Amino acid sequence: MIESEHQPVKGPRKRKGLLIVNTGNGKGKTTAALGMVLRAWGRGMPVEVYQFIKPPTANFGEHRAAKRLGIPVYPLGDGFTWKSKDPERTKALALEQWDRARARLIDPDLAVLVLDEFTYPMHYGWLDPAGVVAALQGRRPMLHVVVTGRYAPPELVEAADLVTEMTLIKHPYREQGIKAQPGVEF
Amino acid sequence: MIESEHQPVKGPRKRKGLLIVNTGNGKGKTTAALGMVLRAWGRGMPVEVYQFIKPPTANFGEHRAAKRLGIPVYPLGDGFTWKSKDPERTKALALEQWDRARARLIDPDLAVLVLDEFTYPMHYGWLDPAGVVAALQGRRPMLHVVVTGRYAPPELVEAADLVTEMTLIKHPYREQGIKAQPGVEF
């Protein structure tokens, strides 16, 4: 049998909630988190998704799917980070979203919590990574947390159980006049 | 606005079906493909998934979810590649699966076709990558195809519109006696 991460691993039977980080400049960070959401949903595990950049009006494929599946997806951002015209508001939205999300860390009924693009509020200095890590480490032990976004801070990487870097090997079609494609890219 | 791959890109409006490859030794290759499946499903786009290694009895999170969503997922493998006790049968299963999958390349009603772990039959020499690429390039122009697996052959990478490498940065918990976790890993 090939050594595949997609097959159940034989061996120790211990379970714990994982802290998973999908980072890097490539594609697939949020998308892989959505795949985990789908898997968990398929197993009947309660999942919630908090998005830190996308505005509440976002209605991408994942939002439409989540609505149909009954999975709570909460976007609360204004689509901006460092290029915001109102940085204080952008920061305030991120802090408000983190307050909401961190309250979920101890819910006994939640199995998977996705913090989408959550690296940016740390990267831009709005949230202290050490404080975030402390909160994440204080979560209910069986809760899986998935954090996505570029520039994952070292403290988060250090605390994580699994860190994957998505690297863009080839992405030529942007230069060919091809726009982002609904259904696969968003 | 941050340069995010998850937001619609302004600019050229041309559309085409993309050939997307998720490769590398890290996690998230199949998982990101599942995220695309979820997005496409959310937009009402017909999706089918052909799995080349997982056996027909596989009932992981993605299979359970797909069944509930009405997304066809066809596993046809015996869980083995080069360690197979019956290499001829393993190879025959892969060829049979490719015959089935390639027939879907021209279906006008299909929007997204996922070929999960399809790199392995090429890597192990059961399928000629040049022939596979020719078949993929002959697909219906608007069809998106997503190929996952390690060791993506150069011909496939060359032909692809988007190639992402998933790299394992950190994965310590296997050594801590933590087993693969249902719902997020499979």
TrEMBL record, chains A, B:
This is Cob(I)yrinic acid a,c-diamide adenosyltransferase. It holds the Pfam family CobA_CobO_BtuR. It comes from Tepidiforma thermophila (strain KCTC 52669 / CGMCC 1.13589 / G233). It comes from the Bacteria. One of its GO terms (molecular function) is corrinoid adenosyltransferase activity. GO terms for biological process: cobalamin biosynthetic process. The keyword tRNA-binding does not apply. Keywords: Transferase. InterPro entries: CblAdoTrfase_CobA (IPR003724), P-loop_NTPase (IPR027417).
